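Field reference: "sequence" (input) and "structure" (output). Example, DUF2442 domain-containing protein:
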Amino acid sequence: MNPSVKSVEALENFKLRVEFENNEQKVFDVEPFLEKGIFSELKNESYFKQVKVAFGSIEWPNEQDFSKDTLYILGVPVAPSETKH
């Protein structure tokens, strides 16, 4: 079972920095999903930045979400020199 999300930060170019409960940080690219139905609303940069942690994963105000498993499996590990504390 993959760890739950502890924090999330919206980055440029529709990427998210996600920190998990095991203290791993990964960058998740949302761009490939932007043309898929409900996710098209995330193209609005100010709306995209409203991402928040919810129920161990992430979501936006209009209930777009990604599971912790998707974020963990598809996320790219952040090099230790790039981690933010």
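The radius of gyration is 12 Å.
The longest strand covers residues 5-10.
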